[in-house]
Amino acid sequence: MAEFWADWGAAAYLLAALWAFFEGETFVLAASAIGAMTGAVDPWILMGSVWIGSFLGDQTWFTLGRRYGPRIMKRYPKAEAKMASATAMLLQYGTLFVLTFRFLYGIRNVAAAACGLAGMGRLRFAALNFIAAGVWAGSFVAAGWYLGALIGPERLFHAIAGGALLVLAVLLFRRFYRRRRQARTVPVL
């Protein structure tokens, strides 16, 4: 990744913004950790680029939810359950939900669309989204920077690989657990 930043220069920050447009936690952590170890990544420019990317991504999902949400919900019934969950949290927690949903795994894009679908005001969402994107960008860049400084370059690969394996194990366990639970609830005829 250090070679990528050295070869691509400013374009690497555009890629970071694009990655944050969709998700990007792992990429931001890795890029800032590399920056701490090699000096190839400027943390302030990285933070600014992922801040803008994250903000624009959630604004896009908000707009799509506001404009096409009801039609999409009719077409994709599986998405309706996630949207209902996100909408329930929005109604219960309001501003706090908008400020924190990007830290909740698996609902970031759905949550922004739910805010649009629920009829939240555009200016209110934009202001809260801007603040939340900044907090998200700053916290993940700082966490990656300090992680990179703490573990050093020789152990970074092992730490990233271990984290990826842990996430994979948790996802597989959840899938196995859900299937097993569903098998128990299906009535036998």
Description:
This protein has 189 residues and is mainly α. The protein has one domain. It contains nine helices and no strands. Helix 5 crosses helix 7 (108-117). The termini are far apart.
Give the topology, please.
Blueprint: H1 2-8, H2 10-22, H3 25-38, H4 43-75, H5 77-93, H6 95-100, H7 108-117, H8 122-151, H9 153-185
Quick rundown:
Pfam families: VTT_dom. The chain has 189 residues and is mostly helical.
The structural domain count equals: 1
Order of helices and strands: HHHHHHHHH
Helix content: over 70%
Q: Based on Cα principal axes, name the global outline.
A: globular
User: What is the first-to-last residue Cα distance?
Assistant: 56 Å
Q: Helix- and strand-based class? A: mainly alpha
The Rg value, from CA coordinates, equals 19 Å
The low-confidence runs, each spanning 5 or more residues with pLDDT under 50, are: none
- Overall mean pLDDT score? 83
**H/I helix tally:** 9
The proportion of residues in beta strands is: under 5%
User: What kind of sheet is the major sheet?
Assistant: none
Domain VTT: 33-145
Organism: Muricoccus roseus
Pfam family, one: VTT_dom
Transmembrane segments: 84-105, 126-149, 155-173
Give keywords.
single chain, 189 residues, mainly alpha, DedA_domain, Membrane protein DedA, SNARE-associated domain, membrane, transmembrane helix
